[in-house]
Design brief:
The protein has 451 residues and is of the alpha/beta class. The chain has two domains: 2-219, Spore Coat Polysaccharide Biosynthesis Protein SpsA, Chain A; 242-432, Hexapeptide repeat proteins (UDP N-Acetylglucosamine Acyltransferase, domain 1), CATH 2.160.10.10. The chain is 18% helix and 32% strand. Helix 1 packs across helix 4 (106-115). The structure holds uridine-diphosphate-N-acetylglucosamine and calcium ion (CA). Residues 98, 100, 221, 223 line the site of calcium ion.
Amino acid sequence: MVSAIVMAAGKGTRMNSKKTKTMHKILGKPMVEHIYDTLEKVGVNNKVFVVGHGRESIMEYLQDKVQYAVQDPQLGTAHAVMQAQHLKNETGKTLIINGDCPLITEETYRLLLDKTTKENPLVLLTTVLEDPKSYGRIIREGNQLLKIVERKDCNDKEVEIREINAGIYCVDNELLWKYLPEVDNNNSQKEYYITDLVQIFRKHGHKVMPLIIEDSEELQGINSMSELASATKWLQRKVNSYWMSRGVNIIDPERTYISTDAIIGADTIIYPTVRIEGKSILGEDNILTEGTYLENVVLGQGNTVKSSRITDSKVGSKVTIGPNSHLRNGCVIADKCNIGNFVEMKNVIFGHDSKCAHLTYLGDTTVGEYCNFGCGVVTVNYDGKYKYHTEIGDHVFIGSNVNLIAPVNIGDYTVLAAGSTITADVKEGDLAIARVRQEIKPGYGFKYLNK
Ligand code: UD1
Ligand code: CA
């Protein structure tokens, strides 16, 4: 049995933020979710998140995907672990993870688990830094760890040590619960430090192994907004390099943000300032121009999305969208469509080769194949209380500035005259015109303008 305790109860004072630290996002995903996703990949069965400060936001976000232990007040990292009582009678290994270290990879966790054995019942990740900042210092003797000294408890010599504790531990679960009660708060911060387990394990004749990780950036802890930005930068470079190695043409990888959960096909060209968030899946040969934002979008092949925003939607192939359009809430766009500039679509099914080139709002609407929308068409889907559906058939021609008052049904091969307000169904093959007939008052123009 492999378990994990994620410590996420601290306030994150150094963030100077109202939001609880581990809910801050890296490439669109909160730290706690990065950790959760990696633990899932590693196959950790029991996941206990220790929450305290801002616990509502974490619990609302991760829901019942994990177990929770509440730590209130927060008396230190060992005290946090002690709250994970669910695991008290488990066997096997337990990972103990600082909630502010979200970049650890699946491979590193696997290595850490492999190294943890009956002979080495406590193993922890370390790395060597140019500037060891406020990290706990590693005091070792050969390949054995003697103790970890927190920055605030260091003497002049210990402060100089550049090997640091990353805050990621793997421990034999039975020994963990056996020795946790021995941790005290006899230190400068009057906190219960999880790092004290090192000396306690040694005292009882167990070995403690420091496992050095070369890539120190993977181990970085996030305590401030500036460290959050460094972590984002590091992950951004890693994700973008990966997709470039798979043939994605990222024009400026420093100004392109791709979620760790996205998939992108080769020869897709991504212009600077594009963001791709969530579980988006993009095929090959797409073009995304400046400012495009995609979140949970499935995009086929050969599409061009110009400076537009698409969320929770599906787009076929050879479609052009934008500039400045907005598709949201479950839109499904078929192949070869053209959705031009300043078009908003919400919950719309848009059929093959249909076109909607300018300044249009469609909401809760189904559109068939080969339809053409003039400029400024609106489906009026909301009466202030309820939302209604609009159904449009195939080969429908809709003139400019037509309002369709839902619920309404427009048959195949129909024409809706420009400027009409359509309030009743239109049958197959008919033309509907619903506007006031024009009147001419000769000479009134001159009169009005005093000419
Ligand atoms: C901790 C380690 C330090 C290590 C560093 C690595 C201790 C005593 N020190 O220091 O050796 O170099 O991480 O990043 O463990 N938390 C709780 N409850 C608490 C206190 C903390 O849940 O009572 C959580 C925090 O939310 C945070 C994590 O534990 O996610 C680490 O706490 P933090 O205060 O950031 O520890 P550091 O000072 O960074
Ligand atoms: Ca920290």
